[in-house]
Structures are given as structure tokens and as C-alpha cells.
Design brief:
By secondary structure, this protein is an alpha+beta fold. It is about 50% helix and about 15% strand. The chain has helices at about 5-20, 100-105, 110-130, 135, 155, 170-185, 205-275, 280-295, 315, and strands spanning about 25, 30-35, 40, 50-55, 60-65, 70, 75-80, 85-95, 190-200. The protein starts with a helix and ends in an 18-residue tail after the last helix.
Length: about 325
């Protein structure tokens, strides 16, 4: 056996081994496969795991994931029914249930994610545009939002602090998006399992307007409180002046009453004194005059009195001190 024959034998054996290896493939537990021949699917999709056989060289294996897959959309700005622009971020879960249809329509997961972006994004915009903002951010159905109890009737008529009552809630809005999108993705061999809002936020362009509206409403209520407070303060000050005048008036009346009673008692005392003996009257006048001296005369006091003065009559009857130096007479001066 010459060298050329040996090379030919080894070539045949190598080709046979390669052909045998190319005719065998495996399918894992998390995969399913589509067999294509010259680019076209042949036979039924392979959905069971294990070692499989195919025609070598002319047939190819196209694995397709059969696990639950994730779709995470990018945040998108869209208007609500009440013309408020919000940024909505969604996520969804999906699974390939018809691998042949999936392969014919989409081929790979990258194309599937792109189609989901289009379909779920479109249905989300439609649902958001049909509902008020409160329906999208709240989950409680049939909840009637409470209004500020501090609002007046006029402020309530101006819709200050008013919210639209919830008829559906976020869960039902998500269900609407899910139902509409599930029908559209089914033609691609995809089953949509779930969809949820991840984040909802005001668009940057309208966030400042929302804050300004909230500030304006709070400022209007604060100005009403300030006006009511000023009115109450004016009322309190008025009551204080009125009560003060009343107290002063009562005090003046009381003083006059006391003074009248005192004058009456003094008059009675005078009357009783004059009705008694002349000596008692003289003694009373004398003591009263001495009390007056004590009140009006101090050290270095100079008095100019008439000789007919009641204050002087007791002084002029006093005997002069013979040991004192003689004083110059000067008319009525003493």
C-alpha cells in the first residue's frame, strides 16, 4: 500500500467522520430549533431536548430560545387626555410559542425586540392619550379623591385642588395595553405574558408649570388665611379698645361714687362738729390747721399771708418770743 492510497483512505475516513459529526446536533432544555435547508425551513420545529440528526452540509440548525424573555422599553414622552406630557417607562415579559412563525417573520431576538418596541410603544401612547393622568398613576378604582377641607365654597367653584375621580386605575390601563398588544404580537409567534408601568414622571417641559400651579393654589389659600387673620386682628384690637373704654368708664364711675360717698361722710362729720360745743369746733379747726401747716410748711419756706387768712389766725394770736431778735414789720408780713 503506497503513500497515495494511505492519504486517500485517511481523507475518506476524515470526510466520513466530519459528515457524521455534521449530521448530529443537540437541543438544550431552554431551546427549540428550526431546521433550514438552503435557507428555508424544513420539517417541524424541534421542541424537545436531546441528540438529534440532520442531513449534513445542506441543513442548518437555528436555535430559538423558549424561556420567558424580557422587554425593557426606553422612557418615552406622551400626552394624557388632560394634555399633560408625561414620561412613561414600561417593561414586559414575552415568550416564543410558535418558533416556525417567529423564524419566518422575525428570524432573531433583535428583530423581535424592535417589533415589540413599535407595538408596545404605539399601544401605550393610545392608552395614555385616552385617560386622565390620575387614572394612570393611581391603582385604586372608584376612589373619589378628597379635597382640601380648608377651601371655601368660592375656591371649590374655581376647581382649586380638584382631582378627577378614578374610574379605572393603573391596573386596568395596563390591561388595556396588554390586550391590544397581545393580539398584534401573536402573528409573530410571540405570546405576551405581562406588561407593567415601571416609572411615570412629568415631562421636564411641563414640570415647572405643574409646580407653578401648585404654588399658585397654595398661595391663594395662604392669602385668604392672611386676609382672615388681619380681619380677626382688627376685630380683636377693636374689642380691646371697646373693653378698655368700658373699664375706664366703670372705673371713673366707681371713683365718682366713692368720692361722693366720702364727701357725704365729710359733710356729715362737719355738720356733727358744728352742732357740738364751741370748744370742740375750735379744737377741730385747730387740729386741721396744724395738719395743714405740716403739709405746706417745710424748711426755708416763706409764706405771704393776709391777716384775715384762716391759716394766719392761729399764728397772730401767738405771743412773741422776747428772747428772739426783733423782726422788721412790713405791713401784713409776719
Amino acid at each position: 500500500m503506497n503513500r497515495t492510497m494511505l492519504i486517500a483512505i485517511f481523507a475518506v475516513l476524515g470526510t466520513g467522520a466530519y459528515a457524521a459529526m455534521s449530521s448530529v446536533y443537540t437541543v438544550s432544555e431552554v431551546e427549540q430549533a428550526i431546521i433550514t435547508q438552503f435557507g428555508k425551513p424544513v420539517g417541524e420545529p424541534v421542541t424537545t431536548a436531546g441528540l438529534k440528526v440532520k442531513v449534513p452540509f445542506v441543513q442548518d440548525v437555528n436555535p430559538i430560545d423558549k424561556r420567558i424573555l424580557e422587554w425593557d422599553g426606553n422612557p418615552s414622552d406622551m400626552p394624557t387626555k388632560d394634555k399633560l406630557y408625561i414620561s412613561v417607562d414600561l417593561f414586559a415579559r414575552w415568550q416564543i410559542t410558535d418558533p416556525l412563525q417567529y423564524f419566518l417573520r422575525l428570524r432573531d431576538e433583535r428583530s423581535a425586540q424592535s417589533r415589540l418596541d413599535d407595538i408596545l410603544g404605539s399601544e401605550t401612547r393610545n392608552a395614555v392619550a385616552k385617560h386622565e393622568l390620575i387614572e394612570i398613576i393611581r391603582t385604586t378604582k372608584d376612589r373619589v379623591p378628597l379635597r382640601d377641607t380648608l377651601l371655601t365654597e368660592a375656591e371649590r367653584e374655581q376647581d382649586i385642588g380638584s382631582l378627577v375621580p378614578i374610574q379605572k386605575g393603573r391596573k386596568l390601563v395596563e390591561q388595556e395595553i396588554f390586550t391590544a398588544a397581545a393580539e398584534k404580537v401573536r402573528v409573530f409567534g410571540i405570546e405576551l405574558l405581562d406588561i407593567r408601568f415601571k416609572r411615570i414622571n412629568y415631562n421636564e417641559s411641563v414640570r415647572s408649570k405643574i409646580y407653578d400651579r401648585m404654588i399658585s393654589e397654595r398661595r391663594q389659600i395662604a392669602e385668604r388665611f392672611l386676609s382672615e387673620g388681619n380681619g380677626e386682628a382688627a376685630r380683636i384690637r377693636g374689642n380691646r379698645v371697646r373693653d378698655l373704654n368700658k373699664i375706664q368708664s366703670e372705673a371713673y364711675r366707681r371713683v365718682e361714687e366713692i368720692r361722693g360717698v366720702a364727701d357725704a361722710k365729710a359733710t356729715g362729720i362737719y355738720s356733727k362738729a358744728y352742732n357740738q360745743s364751741t370748744e370742740a369746733v375750735a379744737f377741730y379747726e385747730f387740729t386741721r390747721t396744724l395738719q395743714s401747716y405740716k403739709s405746706i410748711i417745710a424748711d426755708n419756706t416763706t409764706l405771704v399771708l393776709s391777716t384775715n387768712s384762716d391759716l394766719f389766725k392761729f399764728l397772730k394770736d401767738m405771743a412773741p418770743d422776747t428772747n428772739a431778735a426783733p423782726a422788721q414789720s412790713s405791713g401784713d408780713k409776719r
